[in-house]
Amino acid sequence: MTEKGFDVQDFARGIHELLVLSSLQTGEKHGYQIALDLQADSNDLFRFKHGTLYPILHRLEGEGLIKGSWSKDGGRRKKVYSLTGKGRKHLSGETGRVQEIVSGLMRLLPAPSEVPA
After folding, report:
1. Residue 43 maps to which CATH number?
2. pLDDT tens digits, residue range 23-71?
3. Torsion of CA 63, 65, 70, 73, to 10 degrees
4. Is 45 within the bounds of a domain?
5. Considering the entire predicted model, what is its pTM?
6. Rounded CA gap, 35 and 12, in Å?
7. Which residues span the domain enclosing 77?
């Protein structure tokens, strides 16, 4: 949180970035594999469209949080991404911030049994 308050759009963008960083903890992957893994690991809760994922990957690479390199798979070249030390540190710090925000949200929301029918 900043002095300006909570920015929902910034938070949503940050969640997408953290999901990508989290997916790369297990090793290098190409973009499509990141999307497949996140979808499977979240039981279809998180889905990335091509037009959403690749700008995130490019932004994270530009910030030095991930590193992209080209590999050859059969006859095709693929760009694979790996988490950098800076990316691991960022993921660790931001995970705590997200937990704080979600905890604060849950304190504000009533339990499902408390919502009038």
Report:
1. 1.10.10.10
2. 999 999 999 999 999 999 999 999 988 788 999 999 999 999 999 999 8
3. -140
4. yes
5. 0.81
6. 17
7. 8-98
